[in-house]
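Structure first, sequence second, as always.
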């Protein structure tokens, strides 16, 4: 059995990235969803001229649920490492805890979100490269965490309860 301290610097940075992403996405997503005209964030609807959206409701919902709530659930999963029956097939197929797979999905989703946002808005803010790099960091750190903790530790091997 490989025993390692899960709270390495890379582990803490992964948790911090997910927390920062959640803390930004929850209020921004909520404001965009509840005020779909963009007034809650001072964003005019004209920003959506080159997008498939007529309001900020759908982007706000995605932001709130995927990057806000999703990041918090993933954060909890990485810290507590719970085993839920519905995650067993995912863990069996990928040989890593579901929370690390979720972190990779969130990180990749964040990078895609930023690229699509730049394309639709036809402009770049200083936040775009910052959040793109955060997504990249989440992906890399999740893979590093998976390698550092030895994939599924002995207490989480499938069939060992």
């Amino acid at each position: 059995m490989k025993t390692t301290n899960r709270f390495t610097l890379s582990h803490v940075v992964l948790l911090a990235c997910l927390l920062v992403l959640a803390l930004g996405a929850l209020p921004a997503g909520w404001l965009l969803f509840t005020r779909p005209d963009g007034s809650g964030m001072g964003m005019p609807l004209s920003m959506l001229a080159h997008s498939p959206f007529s309001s900020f409701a759908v982007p706000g919902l995605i932001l709130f649920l995927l990057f806000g709530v999703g990041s918090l659930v993933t954060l909890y999963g990485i810290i507590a490492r719970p085993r839920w029956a519905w995650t067993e097939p995912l863990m069996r197929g990928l040989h890593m805890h579901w929370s690390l797979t979720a972190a990779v999905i969130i990180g990749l989703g964040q990078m895609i979100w930023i690229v699509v946002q730049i394309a639709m808005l036809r402009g770049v803010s200083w936040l775009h490269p910052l959040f793109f790099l955060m997504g990249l960091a989440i992906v890399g750190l999740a893979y590093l965490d998976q390698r550092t903790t030895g994939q599924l530790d002995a207490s989480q091997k499938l069939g060992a309860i």
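Margin note: The chain is about 65% helix and 0% strand.
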